Amino acid sequence: MPVRPRLTPAIAQTRRAVRQVLAELAPKKVLLAVSGGADSLALSAAVVFEAKKLKIEIAAAVIDHALQPNSKAIANQAAERLRAIGVQEVVVERVVVRQTGEGLEAAARTARYKALEKIRLKQKAEWIVLGHNLDDQAETVLLGLARGSGLRSIAGMSAIDAERRLLRPLLDLPRQTLRQACADAGISFWDDPHNEDSKFARVRVRKLAGELEKNLGPGLAEALSRTAASAAEADEVITDLATKCVKKALVKTGARQVSYQVATLSKAKAAVRRKALHIICQSAGAKNISRTQILALDELLTNWHGQKKSSLSGITVERVANQLVVKSTKPLTPGAC
């Protein structure tokens, strides 16, 4: 690989996207999350180039999910390519993927992010930098639409996720641009065969997106990305209003029980009220909360006629006189979101 590849449009676009995010945040050190694929290696090359000018330290992590027979060799090859690009501090870590009811994809993602966060803390890096691109964002929106789980699910991925310390500077660049950036720089990359395996939901969505683009014309990924941005903005406003509503409605908190004023919650607009209920349940420890469950809880506020308490994954919610009472088997964090 040339030490200084010629500046092609693909390389320039990738560097510019990285520069905008890193210059805004000015971190002292970042951790690159690298699979060995084109996206993460194009990202790595751009970060190496921009970090020198911005005086940012770099480390990289390659997570071996041990889901393919040659996964160890693939991970080590990715580490070698990172060192050739100019990343000297590279950690290769194998994780155990424990399947849950959410499937192999979700289990692998959970194991990966847990390992990345552990490495980030050990490396004293401020952010984990990921190579998600425009096409990934479009696929995420389509998956969210299919699940029908609200604004948050179609808001896609955030370029800057402060809560989880994640950066995704390439969300506006298509996958092909990143592959071209690697080709232009002489960087070899690995094509994961799982990306063609239709047993995975994301792969099926990827193929569907390709068919939709053929039938509807070019620009589908960009349109879905704009939809995600609009949904994220709306969700931010609703979440802010709902959080304030929850705090205002809070009556009493205990180790395993929290009470909220029905009158305060019921006065809120439907979108804010239901988001407030989601926040209340989530802070009590409930997971995978469905819209059907939220609508049933909403009935306790707006159509009360003596309903029985509702149970949601480890918590119960019931109306007692003029209060909404949330109980959990674990200590609660009232109003957290």
Automatic annotation (TrEMBL):
Q: Name one GO molecular function term.
A: tRNA(Ile)-lysidine synthase activity
- What residues does the tRNA(Ile)-lysidine/2-thiocytidine synthase N-terminal domain cover? 29-207
> What are its GO biological-process terms?
tRNA processing
Q: Which GO terms describe its cellular component?
A: cytoplasm
Q: Does tRNA processing count among this protein's keywords?
A: yes
What is the top EC class of this enzyme, as a single word?
A: ligase
Instruction: Write the Enzyme Commission number(s) for this entry.
Output: 6.3.4.19
Q: Which UniProt keywords apply?
A: ATP-binding, Cytoplasm, Ligase, Nucleotide-binding, tRNA processing
| Residues of the tRNA(Ile)-lysidine synthase substrate-binding domain | 262-324
Q: Which reaction does it catalyse?
A: cytidine(34) in tRNA(Ile2) + L-lysine + ATP = lysidine(34) in tRNA(Ile2) + AMP + diphosphate + H(+)
Against InterPro entries, the record matches this protein to:
Rossmann-like_a/b/a_fold, TilS/TtcA_N, tRNA_Ile_lys_synt, tRNA_Ile_lys_synt_N, tRNA_Ile_lys_synt_subst-bd
Q: Which SUPFAM superfamilies match?
A: Adenine nucleotide alpha hydrolases-like, MesJ substrate recognition domain-like
Q: Which residues cross the membrane?
A: none
PANTHER family linked to this entry: TRNA(ILE)-LYSIDINE SYNTHASE-RELATED
Protein name as it appears in the record: tRNA(Ile)-lysidine synthetase
Question: Taxonomically, what lineage is the organism?
Answer: unclassified sequences, metagenomes, ecological metagenomes
